[in-house]
Amino acid sequence: MSYKFDAIIIGAGSVGVPSALALARDGIKTLVIDNTPSAGQGQNKKAIGGIRATHTAPAKIHLCLDSIKIFSTWEEKYGDDIEWFQGGYTFIAYNEEHEQFMQDNLVIQKKAGLEIDWVDKERIQDLVPGIVARDLRGGTLSSKDGNASPLKSIYAFYRQSVVEGAEYRFKEKVTSIITESGFAKGVKTDKGVYEADTVINIAGAGAKAVGKMVGIDLPVYPDSHESGISEPVKKFIDPLVVDLRPGTGTNNFYFYQNQEGKFILCLTPEPIIPGTNEMETSAFLPQVAERIVQLIPRTKHLKMRRTWRGLYPMSPDGSPIVGKIKELEGYINAVGMCGQGYMLGPGLGELISRLVQDKLTEKDERTLKEMSMYRDFGKVEKLR
Amino acid sequence: MNLKDQRRIIDHPILTEQEYKLVNFKFEGKKYQAKENEMLSSALIANGIQIFGFHAKDNAPQGIFCANGQCAQCTVLVNGVPVKSCMTPTKEGMIVEQVQGIPSLPEDDSELQSGKIPIYETDVLIIGGGPAGLQAALTLAQYKTNIILIDDKDHLGGKLLLQTHKFFGSVEDSYAGTRGNDIAKKLEKEVEEYKNIDVWLSSPAIAVYNDKLVGVLKEEEYVLVKPRKLLIATGAREKMLSFPGNTLPGVYGAGAFQTLVNRDLVKSSEKIFLIGGGNVGLITGYHAIQAGIEVVGLVEALPECGGYKVHEDKLRRLGVPIYTRHTILAAHGKNHVDSITIAQIDENFKPIQGTEKIFAVDTVLIAIGLDPVNEFHLKAQEFEMDVWAAGDALEIAEASSAMFNGKIAGMEIAINLGLVEEEIPVEWKEKSRILKSHPGPVIERKCQIEKVGVHPIIHCNQEIPCNPCTTVCSEGLINIKGGGLLGLPQYEGCENLVTYTSSCIGCGQCVAVCPGLAITLVDYRKSENTPRVTLPAEIYNKKIEKGEILTVVDEDGNELGDFEVYGSRILARHPKTQLVTFELPADIATKAISFKVQKTIEKAIEEQYEEIIPDEAIICRCERVTAGEIRSYIHKGIKDMNELKSITKVGMGACGGKTCTKLIERIFREEGVPQEEVTTFVQRPLFVEVPLKYFLGTKEE
């Protein structure tokens, strides 16, 4: 038996679900297929929940500004508490090199419309009580950034997309993409056949495999990061804090205290750990404990509750790969989110809907050009 | 408050108080005294403090729940830092406060240097020093192998330490006839004799990692253990039940109660009600009475109790009403339980309206069964470690079975390490099966004995794996028909009345050793009309004196009359069991088995039960998620428990879904969702919360 849709999204994750919401709302009959049992069971639930427009690639800045609009007004519009908190992002500088790096980025960021400023040491100490003052020079603060619960938001997006008419097939694995004389015509799964004129690959860490189904080799290579969450303690830190300094086995460190008061800690391992292994290692806790306790000593008493390991589907330059392809009409990529699918998702979903409907604005065209699969991947996003 | 004015058990018939040093601490600004190093939760309860805090979400009072370091319900602030009181030894000068809402992180900005996390390599790591882990260690230690045996408590023995009753099972393989706490001491002593067993106490395992390392908080120092072989002997946790009021302080597990009462000698309650008639529930009722705590009643949902009949009989005889085909509807009280409502249920387990009864109690103990503590095992399997499990961590059974299975697991590991050539004997597997077997049906049997001489009367009418009585008779008169462990023990004189010539010498060993207290001695030598009847007793701390009047009862607890004690004696081998002798009329001599302790049956209080919807029951204690909330999402079509977690935070609390997982699975069943369609929680480390300072690899100055 075959079912007919306008658009099929492969992947019910951080980007797939808000895309389905945007499409369904715009009247596009949309089906989302995922091999996990429910929305967000891939990498979405591994996301730590930071939402920033503080990037250096204009396309990402624009998409995330759009996302922030959606996250920040969601409760007002739809009533679900997604634990959005506009606490800002602060990048802290402990050396001249990092200060210079941030100041240089500020120029690009401000030009792209980001509200961001350099703040002095005292302001950082106000923002992050207990932070070690020695060598602290100040940092940037982008106060419109924030955080929300990936778990709660994906469920809210999912429910709303269903209200708008989107359909989902869970525990179903896409086995091939049906094509007909250069046109995408639908997908086959292990359980059925679904027809559609548009097939969108939003398969996150599995995007490369889906790309292969249509004969393209997507430069998406997952690596893994571990994260941890603490018990809740009375909230005393508002912004998400990024410390760009390298440490033992770590390239940087970032954390925030969520609305419930729990600390969520994450770092980029050095060297990176390529592959799709998502099993927790013994290395993470000592690394992250060293980072947080040496940055904010009072956290030594904070109890760690749980850790997990998630995948960052990386593109070569740290920016997503989004858009149509030359090889197959009706097929769209929205892949290589580089661990930022959660913050890009809502904004990107809107763009995808406009792309499917051929209603792109000029700005969209520029954004898509920047994220094209055929771009020069040599220019690296500095805050990836 | 002075210790002697506290709620402490000072005259326990089996347990003796250890020496202690007195310490002072403050709770909510008031001064209290405690025993040094006793767990703070016990110190608080002994001082009459049952409310440890109020939940941040709904201000619900929080009290002791697992008493085992597994949940976080007993969290209090000690010197400003939130800790689990059940795992925190009481020290002089502690400032203890209730947790009200979300605690603040103390503004202690002293810096810590980071060091290296030590890695210990070993042949075998055994997690859990209870019956299974101890026996496994002892088995393995005979070979040239290095063993690290860890336990989160400050004593070896696990739940054996809580058992004041004599064990069932096999004398040769699992110390049957010896009390659980005595077995623990024996095994601990044996372990100490092996230099190749490195015992780490107060050292909880906190995680298993993909790089095949086990994270252990070794006496407050975080270390990693790299074992060649891993044995999980982590025991069990108690199942919870969903009913309104189920998280009120005063509602907790039977095991938690045993911890307070039998390990810490704290008189946690005055009047308890037990939910569940399995062995745990029945034994706990018995333990309560030994501790001088009144057992108002016990409900069992099935038409008969699932535990050993001898356990049930013991409880009935002491005067505890057992309400079969009944369930608990609700526990009531504002900040602590003050009463419960029970009701009769129909064959579909639905409460029958109009049958509700309300009883005044201060404690409701849940004893509806156990679940394996298997998260370490599952993770280790996922990470493809060389892992075994034994005891309750593998399969819920009696401690006697855990000991034997620990031995088998130890042997399997020894074989796997190439230390032993032979294979596991076939008869071990058979014995293991028998030790795990559930009690058989009750068999009606009549024993006719000659009214001359002296005879034991065996009131043991159900096949259970148990044999101590067969091993103590110097005359070889008690045997299990066909040998083995499972059959009913039989007294020669009773079986072969015609050919038998009495040779029982009336030594009383069988009476004293029987774990079920189900053997009596009837002696017609002095009088055929008023034979002397000897009954076992282990309820009173004082010697039962000649001339005392006691109400003698039969097997089912029916009163046979008040009789004067003729005398009592104690055998050297069983110093805690009194053999009490009466001169009884011949017609009741073979029926008498014990005497009543609780003489009056507690009446239901005259109050109309106002129905509380079952949906108000709390399923996730940490995040305070109700049954109603979960049900409503199931009605919306949710079948993935991880999605349920995303929306309601169920299972995301401090304990990590240890109690709620099974309760949620049950709601899915009740709602008609087939089990195979339900996706269960993904388990992640850590399995207990750990302060960040430990991961820095240094001990705090």
List the helices and strands and how they pair.
The complex is a heterodimer of chains A (384) and B (701).
Chain A (H helix, E strand, L loop, with lengths): L1 E3 L2 E4 L5 H10 L4 E4 L16 E2 L6 H21 L10 E5 L2 H16 L5 E4 H7 L10 E5 L3 E2 L2 H14 L3 E3 L4 E7 L2 E7 L3 E3 L2 E4 L5 H7 L7 E12 L7 E4 L6 E8 L4 E8 L3 E2 L9 H12 L7 E12 L6 E4 L6 E5 L5 H16 L5 H9 L14
Parallel strand pairs in A: 1-12, 2-3, 2-13, 3-9, 5-15, 13-21
Antiparallel strand pairs in A: 4-8, 5-7, 6-7, 10-11, 11-12, 14-17, 14-18, 14-19, 15-16, 16-17, 20-21
Chain B lengths: L21 E6 L2 E6 L4 H7 L6 E2 L6 E2 L12 E4 L2 E4 L9 E4 L1 E2 L18 E9 L3 H11 L5 E4 L20 H4 L5 H13 L4 E4 L4 E4 L5 E5 L2 E12 L3 E3 L12 E3 H10 L7 E5 L3 H12 L3 E7 L8 H10 L3 E3 L1 E7 L6 E6 L12 E4 L2 E4 L3 E3 L2 H8 L4 E3 L9 H18 L9 H11 L17 E5 L9 H5 L5 E3 L8 E3 H4 L13 H5 L5 E5 L8 E6 L11 E5 L5 E12 L7 E6 L2 H4 L4 E2 L22 E3 L4 E2 H9 L5 H8 L11 H11 L19 E2 L10
Parallel strand pairs in B: 1-7, 3-8, 9-10, 9-14, 10-11, 14-25, 16-23, 17-18, 17-23, 18-19
Antiparallel strand pairs in B: 1-2, 3-4, 5-6, 5-7, 12-13, 13-14, 15-24, 20-21, 21-22, 26-29, 27-28, 29-30, 30-33, 31-32, 31-34, 32-33, 35-36
Elements of chain A, N to C (H/E): EEHEEHEHEHEEHEEEEEHEEEEEHEEEHH
Give the beta-strand count of chain B.
37
Biggest beta-sheet profile of chain A: 9 strands, mixed
Instruction: Give the integer mean of the pLDDT values of chain A.
Output: 96
Helix count of chain A equals 9
CATH topology of the largest domain in chain A: FAD/NAD(P)-binding domain
- Summed over residues and divided by their number, the pLDDT of chain B gives a mean of 94
Please identify the structural class of chain B as seen in this structure: alpha/beta
The CATH architecture term of the largest domain in chain B is 3-Layer(bba) Sandwich
Shape of chain A: globular
Q: What is the terminal separation of chain A in angstroms? A: 44 Å
Radius of gyration of chain B: 26 Å
What is the strand content of chain B?
Answer: 15-25%
- Spell out the CATH superfamily of the largest domain in chain A: FAD/NAD(P)-binding domain
Low-confidence parts of chain B, pLDDT < 50 over ≥5 residues? none
Largest interface: A-B, 49 and 50 residues
CATH fold-level topology of the largest domain in chain B: FAD/NAD(P)-binding domain
Overall 3D form of chain B: globular
Number of helices of chain B: 17
